[in-house]
Specification:
- The protein is built from 13 helices and no strands.
- α1 packs antiparallel against α2 and α12 packs across α13.
- 65% of the residues lie in helices and 0% in strands.
- The protein has three domains: 98 residues, no CATH class; 75 residues; 107 residues, no CATH class.
- The protein is an all-alpha fold.
- About 8% of the residues have low confidence.
C-alpha cells in the first residue's frame, strides 16, 4: 500500500507539476497563468513549512526572480523533484537575504509597530475605495492618514520605506506604488522633455518588441496608466475600448481587473502582482528608449 502523502508533500507535488508545465510551455498567455499559480503555491509552502524571517508575500519581486531563474531558456528542466526543492529552498533563502539587504540600505529603520500601522492604513483606504467604487480624493486620504499619523511623520515613514506617497498616486489595486518619492514619474520624467512623435515611436517600438500574445494585456494596462496620468497625446495608439468606456461611463478599471480579462484563470492576488510587474517593466523599457533618444 502506498504511503499517504503529508500536506507538505501534496503541496510540493502541485508546485513541481506547475513548474514542469511552466518550463515546457511556450505560449505567453499560458506562461503568465502558470507563473501566477506557482507564485501563490511557493508563498504558501514557504510560509507554512519552512523557517522564515518574513512573510513571503512581502518578497513579491524576489520570488518572481527566483521563478524566472528556474525556468530560464538556457536551463535544463530539473527532472528530480527532491533536487528541484533543494534548489528552490536555497533560492528562497537567498531571496530573503536579498530582501533584507535592500531593507538595510535604508538609512532610517522603521519600528515594527509603525510598519504595522502603515499596512493597516493602506488596507483601510483600500476598503473604503472598494466600498465607494472609486478612488479617494487627496482630502479624503488625508482624513484617513490624520487618524494614524501626523502628515510629516507619514511622509518621513514612506521615504524611509522607499515607497511612493498616497498623495502622488497608487498602483490601481489599492496598494502603495513602489517608487522613489524623490524622483519624477518613470515615464513623465522623459515625456516632458521629448517630442510627442518620439514618445509615440517609443511606445510603438517597445510594444512591438513584446511577445504577440502579451501585447493586448500590456497595451490595456498602459492605457489605464495614461488615463490616470492624463497623457492624452498617446490616446491614438492606445486601447480605444478602455478609453471610450472611461469617458462614457466614468468608470476606470483596476489593473488586476484588466489582467484578469486576458488571463482569467489567475487568482486576484496574483493578478494584482503580475499586472503591476508587467506595467512597471513596460514603463521602464519606454523610459530607457526615451533616455537613449535624449542623450
Amino acid at each position: 500500500m502506498d504511503k499517504q502523502q503529508t500536506p507538505e508533500e501534496k503541496l510540493k507535488t502541485v508546485i513541481y507539476d506547475i513548474y514542469t508545465n511552466l518550463f515546457c510551455e511556450t505560449a505567453s498567455d499560458q506562461r503568465q497563468t502558470y507563473i501566477g499559480q506557482i507564485w501563490d503555491k511557493i508563498v504558501l509552502w514557504w510560509n507554512k513549512f519552512n523557517y522564515h524571517k518574513i512573510d513571503a508575500k512581502e518578497m513579491g519581486e524576489e520570488i518572481f526572480n527566483v521563478i524566472k531563474r528556474l525556468v530560464k531558456e538556457n536551463n535544463e528542466i530539473v527532472k528530480n523533484k527532491s533536487e528541484f526543492f533543494y534548489i528552490l529552498q536555497k533560492s528562497m533563502k537567498n531571496a530573503e537575504n536579498e530582501y533584507f539587504r535592500k531593507d538595510e540600505q535604508n538609512p532610517i529603520k522603521i519600528p515594527r509597530e509603525e510598519k504595522r500601522k502603515l499596512k493597516e492604513l493602506n488596507e483601510l483606504i483600500k476598503i473604503r475605495e472598494d466600498f465607494w467604487e472609486r478612488k479617494l480624493t487627496n482630502d479624503e486620504k488625508e482624513q484617513c492618514i490624520s487618524k494614524w499619523f501626523k502628515k510629516q511623520k507619514y511622509i518621513d515613514l514612506l521615504i524611509a520605506k522607499n515607497i511612493g506617497s498616497l498623495y502622488t498616486g497608487d498602483d490601481e489595486t489599492g496598494g502603495l506604488i513602489y517608487v522613489d518619492p524623490h524622483s519624477a514619474d518613470p515615464l513623465n520624467e522623459y515625456i516632458n522633455k521629448t517630442d510627442m512623435e518620439i514618445v509615440l515611436e517609443a511606445v510603438t517600438t517597445v510594444l512591438k518588441n513584446k511577445q504577440e500574445r502579451a501585447r493586448p494585456c500590456v497595451k490595456a494596462l498602459f492605457t489605464l496608466y495614461c488615463i490616470k496620468n492624463d497623457l492624452k497625446g498617446l490616446y491614438p495608439i492606445l486601447d480605444q475600448e478602455i478609453i471610450d468606456s472611461f469617458h462614457k461611463h466614468d468608470k476606470k478599471l483596476k489593473q488586476y481587473e484588466i489582467y484578469l480579462k486576458f488571463y482569467p484563470e489567475t487568482d486576484k492576488k496574483s493578478a494584482e502582482v503580475m499586472a503591476a510587474t508587467n506595467l512597471r517593466k513596460f514603463l521602464n523599457d519606454i523610459k530607457a528608449y526615451l533616455k537613449g533618444k535624449n542623450q
